[in-house]
Design brief:
This protein is of the alpha+beta class. The strands form five sheets. Strands 13-12-9-10-11-14-19-18 form an eight-stranded antiparallel β-sheet, with helices on both faces. Strands 3-2-1-4-5 form a five-stranded parallel β-sheet. Strands 7-6-8 form a three-stranded antiparallel β-sheet, covered by helices on one side. A hairpin with a 5-residue loop joins strand 15 and strand 16. Helix 7 packs across helix 8 and helix 12 packs antiparallel against helix 13. Bound molecules: ligand MV4. Ligand MV4 binds next to strand 8 and strand 13. GO terms for molecular function: biotin carboxylase activity.
Length: 500
C-alpha cells in the first residue's frame, strides 16, 4: 500500500480537469502539464502546480516522456494519471514511469502491450471461451491459405491490422476477386501507419452495434464489471452519442457480456479501469473485439448509472487497495446519455471549425453534467482534438434522459464557432434513436446537412401558409393605395417610400 500525495495528470482539457477534481476531493495535490498553446487553459489554472512541456504540437509537449518524468522528479510527484489519448496506451511510457519509482495510474505495461495488439489480445483470451467473430488467429502470411479461409468463412470479410485501432487499417472485401489487391493494400497501409504489417481476417458483420463493458480490477485479482455502454452512434469511427445502459441489452445478455468482459480482463491480469469492446449483430450475438486499457471519454455515463467515481477507484487501486465493492453491490440506477460537443461544422462535412468561443453558457439543472475544458473568450487550439465538451444527462428512464438532453442542448449557448450541438439534437429526436433500433450505420443512413434545417410540424406549416396569404393580401392593399397616390399630384417623397 502506497499513499499518493501528489498526482501529475499527463493530459489537457476536460479530462485533465475531471481527474484533478477527484484527486482534490481525495486530498491529493495536483500537477498539470501544458503546452505553450494551453498556457491559459482551465486545467492549468485549476492545478496546484503546473509545468510547461514545450511548443503546441503534441510531439513537442504532451508526448514527451522524458520531460514528464523529469517534472515528477522536480516536484516530488508520486503518481501519474495519463487520461485518454496521448500516452495513455503507451506500454513503454507505463514501463518508464514505474522504473522511475512513480505510480502509473493504469494497468501493467504487459496488459497495455497485449491489448495493443489485436492478434495478441485474441490469442490471450482464446482459451476462455469468449465469443469472437470467425476469422484467422494468426497474421496472414500465405495469400492462398488466407483466400481459402476467407472462402470458408464466407464473404464479405474484413481485413484488419493487428496494430490498428479506431477503424484505421480496415478493409472490407466483398468477393474473392478483390482479395489479393485489398490484402496487399492493407499490409502496406498497416506497415506505414503502425510500423507493423501484421493483418488478419474476420467475417464482416455488416451493421453491428458497438457495445462495450466497463471493468475495474485491483492488484489482488478482483475484477468487476460496471455494465455496458452503447456507443453505436458514431461518425467515421468518432463516437457522437453514448448511453448506459443499452436499449437492447436484456438482464441475461448483460450478465453474459459482463462475465465475458471479466474473463478478458483476467486473461491479462488486468488492474485499474478498462473497457472491453464488443460488436453485436442483428440477432444480438456479441463478439469480443478488443480491450481499451485506459479511462474512456464516455466513462461519465457509467458513473451516472452506478454512482461510482471511476477516477477515484483508479487511484485507490493504484495505491494498492482492494476494490471497495463486489459485483453484487453494483446496480443500475436510471439511464444516462452523453453527447460530444465538437467544434465542427455538421453543415460542412464536419470540418473542424476553430476560433474564439464568443459566447459560452453551459446548461444547468437537475440531472445535467458538463465536462469541459474551456471558458468563454478562449480560442479553440487547432493542434488537438476539437472536442469542446461532453454533455451528460441522467434521469430515471431512457425517455426522460433523452428529453432532458434535448432541454440541455437548447440551453447550451455557444457562439463564435460552429458545433455539433444541433446535430446531436437531431439524433436525440430521431425516431430510430428514440426507439433504440439503430446500429453503427445510423449517421450515414439518416443524416444529411438538410436534417439540420428547421423542422416544422404540419400544423405549424398551415399556420405559416395562412399568415403568408394574409401578409400578401395586406401588401397588395398597401401597394394599391400607393399607386392611387402616384397620380403625379404628389412628388415621390420619403413618406411614400416608407409605405413601400
Ligand atoms: C468490425 C466490424 C464488422 N465486422 N469487425 C471498427 C473499429 C474497430 N474497433 C472495430 N471496428 C469494426 N470491426 C467485424 N468483424 C465493424 C466495425 C465497425 C465499427 C465498430 C465499432 C464502432 C463503430 C464501427 C463503425 C464501422 C465499423
Amino acid at each position: 500500500m502506497k499513499k499518493i500525495h501528489k498526482l501529475l495528470v499527463a493530459n489537457r482539457g476536460e479530462i485533465s480537469l475531471r481527474i484533478m477534481r477527484t484527486a482534490r476531493e481525495m486530498g491529493i495535490k495536483t500537477v498539470a502539464v501544458y503546452s505553450e498553446a494551453d498556457r491559459h487553459a482551465p486545467h492549468v489554472k485549476y492545478a496546484d502546480e503546473a509545468v510547461c512541456l514545450g511548443p503546441a504540437p503534441s510531439n513537442q509537449s504532451y508526448l514527451l516522456i522524458d520531460k514528464i518524468i523529469q517534472a515528477c522528479k522536480d516536484l516530488q510527484v508520486d503518481a501519474i494519471h495519463p487520461g485518454y489519448g496521448f500516452l495513455s496506451e503507451n506500454a513503454k511510457f507505463a514501463q518508464r514511469v514505474s522504473e522511475a519509482g512513480i505510480i502509473f495510474v493504469g494497468p501493467s505495461p504487459q496488459a497495455i502491450e497485449v491489448m495493443g495488439s489485436k492478434l495478441a489480445a485474441k490469442q490471450a483470451v482464446s482459451k476462455y471461451g469468449i465469443p469472437m467473430v470467425p476469422g484467422t488467429e494468426e497474421a496472414i502470411s500465405d495469400i492462398d491459405e488466407a483466400k481459402s479461409t476467407a472462402a470458408s468463412i464466407g464473404y464479405p470479410i474484413l481485413i484488419k491490422a493487428s496494430a490498428g485501432g479506431g477503424g484505421k487499417g480496415m478493409r472490407i472485401v466483398e468477393k474473392e476477386e478483390e482479395f489479393e489487391e485489398q490484402m496487399q493494400r492493407a499490409i502496406s497501409e498497416a506497415q506505414s501507419a503502425f510500423g507493423d504489417g501484421a493483418v488478419f481476417i474476420e467475417k464482416y458483420i455488416t451493421s453491428p452495434r458497438h457495445i462495450e463493458i466497463q471493468v475495474l480490477g485491483d492488484h489482488h485479482g478482483n475484477v468487476v464489471h460496471l455494465f455496458e455502454r452503447e456507443c453505436s452512434v458514431q461518425r467515421r469511427h468518432q463516437k457522437v452519442v453514448e448511453e448506459a445502459p443499452s436499449a437492447v441489452v436484456s438482464e441475461a445478455m448483460r450478465q453474459r457480456m459482463g462475465e465475458a468482459a471479466i474473463m478478458v480482463a483476467k486473461a491479462c491480469d488486468y488492474y485499474g479501469a478498462g473497457t472491453v469492446e464488443f460488436i453485436v449483430d442483428e440477432a444480438l450475438n456479441f463478439y469480443f473485439l478488443e480491450m481499451n486499457t485506459r479511462l474512456q471519454v464516455e466513462h461519465p455515463v457509467t458513473e451516472m448509472i452506478t454512482g461510482v467515481d471511476l477516477v477515484k477507484e483508479q487511484i485507490l487501486v493504484a495505491e494498492g487497495h482492494q476494490l471497495s465493492f463486489g459485483q453484487e453491490d453494483l446496480k443500475i440506477h436510471g439511464h444516462a446519455v452523453e453527447i460530444r460537443v465538437y467544434a465542427e461544422d455538421p453543415k460542412n462535412n464536419f470540418l473542424p471549425d476553430i476560433g474564439k468561443l464568443q459566447t459560452y453558457t453551459r446548461p444547468q439543472g437537475s440531472g445535467v453534467r458538463v465536462d469541459d475544458g474551456f471558458e468563454q473568450g478562449m480560442d479553440i487550439p487547432i493542434y488537438y482534438d476539437p472536442m469542446i465538451a461532453k454533455l451528460i444527462t441522467h434521469a430515471d428512464t431512457r425517455e426522460k434522459a433523452m428529453d432532458r438532453m434535448i432541454r440541455a442542448i437548447e440551453e447550451y449557448q455557444i457562439t463564435g464557432i460552429e458545433t455539433t450541438l444541433g446535430f446531436c439534437k437531431f439524433v436525440m429526436k430521431h425516431e430510430a434513436f428514440r426507439s433504440g433500433d439503430f446500429d453503427t450505420k445510423f449517421v450515414e443512413r439518416y443524416f444529411t446537412p438538410e436534417s439540420l434545417d428547421e423542422q416544422w410540424t404540419d400544423d405549424e406549416l398551415s399556420l405559416l401558409a395562412a399568415s403568408a396569404v394574409e401578409i400578401f393580401e395586406s401588401s397588395k392593399k398597401d401597394l394599391r393605395k400607393i399607386k392611387s397616390l402616384q397620380g403625379d399630384q404628389f412628388p415621390r417623397t420619403k413618406w411614400k417610400n416608407r409605405l413601400l
